[in-house]
Specification:
Layout (H helix, E strand, L loop, with lengths): L7 H12 L3 H14 L4 E7 L5 E6 L6 H7 L25 H6 L3 E9 L5 E11 L2 E2 L3 E3 L4 E7 L6 H4 L5 H18 L4 E5 L4 E5 L6 H13 L1 H5 L1 E8 L2 E8 L4 E2 L5 E5 L2 E3 L2 H10 L9 E2 L1 E6 L5 E2 L10 E2 L2 H19 L5 H11 L8 H7 L5 E2 L4 E2 L6 H6 L1 H4 L33 E6 L3 E6 L2 E6 H20 L3 E11 L2 H9 L1 H6 L3 E4 L4 E8 L7 H15 L4 H16 L10 H13 L13 E5 H7 L4
Parallel strand pairs: 1-8, 13-16
Antiparallel strand pairs: 1-2, 2-7, 3-4, 3-7, 4-5, 4-6, 8-9, 10-11, 11-16, 12-15, 13-14, 17-18, 19-20, 21-22, 22-23, 23-27, 24-26, 25-26
Helix pairs in contact: 2-6, 6-7, 9-10, 11-12, 15-19, 15-20, 16-18
């Protein structure tokens, strides 16, 4: 077969294969074009899951007849400044979307131009394109803005149709794409209709971006997120991070609810995902994922959005700075937020107390299904399989943690109730201790409610923070290997490890280059006890290749600290005196992240008095 140029329609269909993966891709491209056109209102209609019809209408600037003819040509764009592919300030800039979509569907586009003052042009125009073949331009009757209809998607490439999922699934992907764009642009109103009913409707927000964004996130993610998240507002060296991070006790079983935006563009980026994971590393169990909505703004020249035609991936000039900003901003925000736990736990408790209620309601039941294994021998929650030698060798770090809680097991709160009659104590955030139930739960009274504290989970967090502080002050103890371990790796993986020898040494892992494609390990963190050195190093190398950061070693150390804290804390089943309970409450109030244990379970539940009164019909 001789060398030849492909026909224009085949070129467009190939481009469509990159840009138009499914109906959601069409919706995303058309909505992004509307945002770039300065629209204040964007309406989407889909039927047949997008196969039959996708219609997107906006009130943006619109186009003239000549621009209308040009917009369906390949690589026609108005969004590049001086043809600079590095200085991208718009969502769409390639000029591929419309011609690619038109090459695999029946596309009709109508538009009416308006100037900067909103004055309408005299004429509106309409153009039809079928499988890449343009019709003649014809007059139309339209208000200012643009309306695009895409019918019979993939009719020109029927092989693609069989790869589409059910209508409901395809519609779900499309509405998720609109939701993400709506989060990033709270000043624009959006609606999505499935042909029968409106599935999403949000109004344009107020002039204040921060308040408008919070209201938009509540509209889309839910009111619970607004009540159980903390504001993020941080900056460093021209990088600006804003948004909201969900409380650790308000988490999910997958990462579906992690929304990340770079310069207003929804992205799915490994660097950002790894940074979020690092920020929550000692606040959540490994099978739980936080809910976050983070908006990163930086100089367009510092980020490459031209990585893939779908523009969902980005590449940062300084990924380390981005990662550090996210981790420090989230941790700092939690530290400033004080003592907080998810309100959904309280709602679940109240739901269980109502006639006909059940414990499975709300977030608490979801968390209980994923809690760590309970060990009766250990007397609490821990990580199964932890070597006793490791715990014993580092017991001094946890010693003294039960000081102030050393009551005899037979002590009972109600034997001397006068110990806790401190009227001023109820004004503390966790109030004054009033009793202990089942030798596990401390009941306290606040000025406007009741707090129930899980004494083991609460003290576990206190001990964990002490162990962390001891490691921070004294460093991670190292254990010299009797015989250094040589680990064979891919040359690229070995180079990444060698580049970070100083960072790994701070965590107790001492290694150095050993020829081409190998490293030699001389010391390992003593906390890990007997460990598989080769497996550990290979896991770290894989993590560096995927996330450009090594979280595995730090997480393993934190896991050991968590287990030590679990074994060194006050157990469920221990009777406490009034003074001991109040001492526990006061220390919780002074300890960072005391709203959850190191496994991510809530340490306390607060029930407001007005909610309790509703249970008894007093309100």
């Amino acid at each position: 077969m001789s060398l030849r140029l492909l026909p224009e329609n085949i070129v467009n269909q190939i481009a469509a294969g990159e840009v138009v993966e499914r109906p959601a891709s069409v919706v995303k491209e058309l909505v992004e074009n509307a945002i770039d056109a300065g629209a204040r209102r964007i309406d989407v209609i889909m039927t047949g899951g997008g196969r039959s019809l996708i219609a997107v209408t906006d009130d943006g600037r619109g186009m003239t007849g000549d621009e209308l003819k040009l917009c369906v040509e390949r690589h026609a764009t108005s969004k590049l400044d001086d043809d600079d592919l590095l200085n991208i300030k718009h969502l769409g800039f390639r000029g591929e979307a419309l011609p690619s979509i038109a090459s695999v569907s029946r596309l009709t586009i109508g538009s009416r131009k308006s100037d900067a003052d909103g004055m309408l042009a005299d004429d509106a125009w309409e153009l039809a394109v079928t499988a890449g073949q343009k019709s003649n331009l014809r007059p139309a009757s339209l208000p200012a803005g643009t309306r695009i209809e895409v019918r019979d998607l993939f009719f020109a490439t029927p092989a693609r149709l069989k790869f589409l999922k059910a209508e409901r699934t395809e519609f779900g992907h499309a509405i998720d794409a609109v939701r993400r764009l709506a989060m990033a642009h709270p000043d624009i109103g959006f609606s999505v209709t499935d042909g029968e009913r409106t599935r999403l409707r949000v109004r344009e927000g107020s002039a204040d971006l921060f308040e408008a964004r919070r209201a938009r996130l509540i509209d889309i993610i839910g009111r619970d997120f607004g009540e159980n998240s903390i504001a993020i507002d941080a900056g460093r060296d021209g990088y600006k991070l804003t948004g909201y991070a969900g409380l650790p006790t308000f988490s999910r079983g997958n990462a579906q609810y992690q929304y990340m935006f770079v310069n207003g563009r929804p992205v799915r980026d490994r660097v950002l995902q790894g940074a979020i994971r690092g920020a929550y590393s000692d606040l959540l169990a490994g099978n739980r994922h936080p809910i976050v909505a983070l908006f990163l703004d930086l100089d367009p020249l510092s980020v490459d959005v031209n990585v893939h035609p779908a523009k969902a991936e980005v590449r940062f000039e300084d990924s380390g700075r981005v990662r550090g900003l996210i981790v420090s901003a989230i941790k700092h925000a939690f530290a400033e937020a004080g003592l907080r736990t998810a309100t959904t736990a309280s709602q679940a408790a109240l739901g269980s107390a109502r006639p006909g209620g059940y414990a499975g309601q709300g977030q608490l039941s979801q968390m209980s299904r994923n809690r760590p294994v309970y060990s009766q021998h250990a007397g609490g929650y821990g990580t199964p399989g932890m070597r006793e030698t490791t715990l014993q060798s580092y017991a001094p770090l946890a010693q003294g943690n039960t000081e102030g809680y050393a009551a005899e097991p037979r002590a009972r709160m109600n034997e001397n109730p006068g110990e806790i009659e401190d009227a001023a104590a109820i004004n503390y955030p966790l109030g004054a201790a009033r009793g202990q139930l089942h030798e596990t739960y401390v009941i306290s009274q606040t000025a406007d409610g009741i707090v129930i504290v899980d004494q083991h989970a609460a003290h576990e967090r206190l001990v964990y923070e002490r162990v962390k502080q001891a490691l921070l002050e004294n460093g991670v103890a190292r254990q010299i290997l009797l015989l250094p371990e040589v680990v064979e790796l891919d040359p690229g993986h070995a180079d990444r490890l060698v580049e970070r020898v100083d960072q790994l040494a701070e965590l107790g892992l001492v290694l150095e280059a050993f020829g081409d494609g190998a490293v030699v390990v001389r010391e390992v963190p003593a906390l890990l006890g007997e460990t598989n050195v080769i497996g550990l190093v290979r896991d770290l190398a894989d993590e560096l290749a995927e996330l450009d950061q090594s979280l595995g070693l730090r997480e393993r150390l934190e896991e050991v600290c968590s287990t030590m804290a679990c074994h060194g804390s006050v157990r469920a089943g221990r009777a406490l005196t009034g003074d001991e309970m109040n001492a526990l409450l006061r220390e919780m109030e002074a300890t960072p992240n005391a709203g959850q244990c190191s496994h991510g379970r809530p340490t306390f539940v607060e029930l407001k008095l007005h909610d309790i009164e509703k249970l008894f019909g007093r309100r």
